[in-house]
Specification:
mainly alpha
Length: about 80
């Protein structure tokens, strides 16, 4: 086993950790271990393509200016 030292913990965070540990019947150190294990061992969430596409923000009706090309770069199609 290895040791980890975390310096300069905010007092509010330290109090919250102590309270959480007390609620779960653990020491603060044991509570921190549980928190770290749960976060690190969590596998990445798999998402469907449909869910990913649904998370793309919708553009408002006035977003056409984002896709317009400047007239100077437009070429005549008859040429």
């Amino acid at each position: 086993m290895t040791d980890v030292l975390i310096r300069n913990i905010d007092e509010t965070l330290d109090k919250a950790l102590k309270l959480r540990a007390l609620e779960h019947g653990r020491t603060r150190e044991a509570e921190i271990k549980v928190i770290l294990e749960s976060v690190v061992s969590r596998s990445p969430e798999k998402r469907s393509l449909a869910d990913a596409l649904m998370d793309i923000p919708k553009l408002d009706n006035d977003a056409g200016h984002l896709f317009k090309r400047p007239r100077s770069s437009a070429r005549n199609v008859d040429e």
